[in-house]
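Renewal narrative, Specific Aim 1. Our central claim is that a sequence can be written position by position from structural information alone. The example that follows is taken directly from our test logs and has not been curated for this report. It begins with the structure tokens describing the chain, in the order in which they were read.
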């Protein structure tokens, strides 16, 4: 019942936003709408454009390319972040040596790296994947590193008293401690993987949702721009739902939060 109420409230927020948008672009005030449709389009035009894309089948190729780039960036960046995060957390000397370099690399503006990746990997899929990896890696890395470092000293001492070796500690203590942190970062990383792919397509590509949005902008097709953004938003929500399903599957041991009822 609580989940149903939550879904209903979330839907209500979306409906209110769409209604306000529709009224602001269609209802005339002093002979003109509050938001000119030329600059803001209308919900009806955006929905019509999305339906046309799917009905004609033109969107599927772009969706598949962006999905491939995003998933590759997400998987490679996540695996790299988890492995390096665990390594740094378990090797304090290594972490201390590379700490300033990691911070410098994380501070680099990703938009500056995009043209460099294009020169290195060309206009194909891998330049977009590389950009997405740079966004995903650091988010996962810092969370996993912190998750391993946050292991309770009492739990760790008790595990060692029970005779656990390093491999058993990794499996039964460090890994469970980092899991919650890791999945928290993965939810954020989903959006950043898509952002990396779309920005890469925006800067140079012949297909993908970023390319589709860029083409719409080039022809002042505001309905097409909003349609592309809404498809992207739905796209991210679907991927995030998959991550949530995996999280619930792997973290069945975690106690559920109280629903707040008295």
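The sequence written for that structure reads:
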């Amino acid at each position: 019942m609580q989940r149903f109420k939550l879904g209903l409230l979330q839907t209500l927020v979306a409906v209110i936003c769409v209604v306000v948008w529709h009224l602001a672009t269609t209802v005339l005030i002093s002979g003109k709408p509050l938001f000119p449709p030329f600059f803001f389009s209308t919900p009806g035009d955006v929905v019509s454009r999305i339906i046309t894309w799917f009905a004609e089948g033109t969107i599927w190729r772009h969706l598949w390319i962006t999905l491939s780039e995003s998933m590759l960036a997400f998987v490679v960046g996540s695996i790299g972040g988890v492995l390096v995060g665990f390594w740094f957390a378990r090797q304090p000397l290594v972490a201390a040596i590379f700490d300033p370099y990691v911070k410098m690399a994380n501070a680099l503006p990703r938009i500056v790296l995009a043209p460099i990746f294009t020169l290195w990997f060309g206009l194909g899929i891998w330049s977009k994947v590389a950009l997405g990896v740079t966004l995903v890696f650091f988010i996962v890395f810092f969370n996993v590193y912190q998750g391993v470092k946050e292991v309770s000293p009492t739990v760790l001492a008790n595990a060692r008293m029970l005779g656990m070796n390093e491999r058993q500690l990794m499996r039964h203590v460090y890994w469970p401690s980092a899991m919650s942190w890791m999945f928290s970062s993965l939810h954020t990383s989903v959006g950043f993987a898509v952002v990396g792919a779309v920005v890469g397509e925006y800067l140079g590509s012949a297909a993908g949702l970023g390319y589709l949005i860029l083409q719409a902008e080039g022809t002042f097709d505001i309905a097409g721009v909003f349609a592309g953004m809404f498809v992207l938003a739905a796209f991210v929500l679907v991927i995030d739902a998959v991550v949530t399903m995996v999280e619930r599957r792997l973290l069945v041991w975690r106690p559920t939060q109280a629903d707040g009822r008295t």
